[in-house]
Specification:
Rossmann fold; about 450 residues; alpha+beta; binds adenosine monophosphate; five-stranded parallel beta sheet; Dna Ligase, domain 1; binds glycine; six-stranded antiparallel beta sheet
Length: about 450
């Protein structure tokens, strides 16, 4: 069968690997840039912009895929799944109406409130500046201001981090209203974040193992927010600071939100619901939903998926996820991204990197390598301005998985860095201690 894949990051390299692993899929990829890993797995590879709908349609007409898989958030939010449906091509990705789950933070907060689903922090949506300052005061100066549209992960500003005073908070909220016509202001939650991604066919929700991402650029969670520097998941499909009931709470929220989405819009959400949750002293809270796989989180889960991924995709489209036994290996995984020096603010693009040959062709049961943004030229690999390559260590314990990923990162030479602390016992212990204090 043929699958049309849209996207060209490490996330999509990992999706491409999972789709082709079964041996029954021929991949045709539509991408903004050439990803050497996806290119090698694809029969056809078309370069084009995600906003060029005519180009996407032409490629889809030529390929005639059995289904499509859309990786990134922007084409999903723009309605590429709706576009492909005009050709009767179904996508493992939601239609635009239900993709608002990610593209509009106010839509999701309002939906959760309207259907009396637990998980929302205190929040208000403002359409004009009247009352913003009072609400910030009401929240005791601990607040978060969220732009209500896709901002490439840069739309959220937090008191004490980006916003020093109430005036700063109010000013940013006003800017958001000018840009998107409204703004979400909410209580600042304190706790540990985790990602719970679920396969969703509109009616059934099947969770993947939970993952913890690391957004800050530098060791010790210092520096600017990035697209994600790395992530880990544990062999028991929990996280060291999570309890089973936390996961059950998060699952219930996703199940109820999937149902509410259908009741609200009449459209079944078919794809990946990725909940960003926080365990707090008062239980699990919802930070946000994404309508796609997480990057890097997908690299923690698809490599250990035992079930044929194509079968999972078919069940998502067929609405019968309940009939497929979806299993993951009991392995710990640690993913680390190699990024250019200066990333994310002043990345040194265009520099050559060298990877030791043994690392380039790893043993897939213990190490995976996924290309993100690199330029493969005749004489080797060159950096672009974003994340370059991800390595995933896979082992029985976090400790060993971390060492495998770390060693692979050490085998990349050039003007790059990575976070040595992701997945280490020291960093994880810090999080466990924090949660222990909280839960008392
Ligand atoms: P988002 O763009 O919604 O993923 O938000 C980016 C980051 O902001 C999240 O990963 C959290 O670390 C943080 N964040 C968002 N909402 C809240 C909140 N209500 N309280 C504390 N932190 C938050
Ligand atoms: N892990 C962050 C994201 O995929 O949005």
């Amino acid at each position: 069968m043929k699958v049309l894949l849209i996207g060209n990051g490490a996330r999509e390299h990992c999706i491409a690997e999972a789709l082709t692993r079964s041996g029954r899929v021929k991949l045709a990829t539509y991408a903004k840039a050439k990803n050497p890993g996806i290119f090698a797995l694809s029969e056809e590879y078309q370069l084009g912009s995600y906003t060029d709908f005519r180009s996407i349609l032409n490629f889809a007409k030529k390929v005639k895929p059995d289904f499509a898989f859309i990786g990134p958030d922007d084409p999903i939010a723009d309605g590429v799944a709706d576009l492909l449906l005009e050709l009767e091509i179904h996508s493992v990705a939601p239609l635009k109406t239900v993709a608002r789950l990610e593209s509009s933070k106010s839509f999701t907060r309002d939906l959760v409130q309207k259907y009396k689903i637990p998980g929302n922090p205190r929040f208000k949506v403002f359409f004009d500046p009247v009352g913003i300052k009072e609400f910030l005061q009401e929240l005791g100066g601990n607040y978060v201001v969220k732009a209500d549209g896709l901002m490439g992960g840069k739309g959220v500003q937090i008191s004490g981090e980006h916003l020093a005073t109430l005036e700063d908070g109010e000013a940013y909220a006003k800017k958001c209203i000018e840009k998107f016509g409204r703004v979400v202001v909410e209580e600042k939650l304190i706790g540990q974040e985790f990602s719970l991604m679920s396969f969703v066919d509109g009616k059934h929700v099947v969770d993947m193992p939970p993952v913890q991402d690391h957004k800050r650029a530098f060791v010790g969670d210092k520096g600017a927010n990035t697209g994600g520097m790395g992530s880990y998941s544990d062999a028991n499909h929990l996280l060291p600071f999570l309890e089973k009931r936390d996961l059950e709470e998060a699952h219930l929220i996703t199940e109820k939100v999937a149902d509410a989405l259908f009741r609200e819009t009449g459209i079944l959400f078919k794809g990946i619901m990725y909940g960003g949750f926080m365990v707090t002293a008062n239980g699990v809270r919802l930070i946000e939903y994404n309508a796609r796989f997480g990057d890097p989180e997908v690299m923690n889960v698809l490599p250990i998926l035992k079930t044929d991924f194509v079968e999972v995709c078919e069940a998502i489209l067929g609405g019968n996820l309940n009939r497929v036994k979806i299993e993951f290996e009991n392995k710990a995984t640690v993913c680390k991204y190699i990024v250019p020096e200066g990333y994310p603010e002043n990345p040194r693009a265009g520099e050559k990197i060298e990877i030791e040959p043994s690392t380039l062709n790893p043993q897939p049961s213990t190490l995976r390598m996924y290309y993100a943004s690199v330029d493969q030229r005749d004489d080797g690999l060159y950096l672009s301005s974003s994340r370059a390559i991800a390595f995933v260590g896979i082992a029985d314990t976090l400790d060993i998985a971390e060492k495998i990923a770390e060693q692979a990162c050490g085998n990349v030479k050039g003007l790059v860095f990575h976070r040595e602390d992701i997945g280490t016992a020291a960093l994880i212990e810090k999080r466990v201690r924090m949660m222990r204090e909280f839960r008392r």
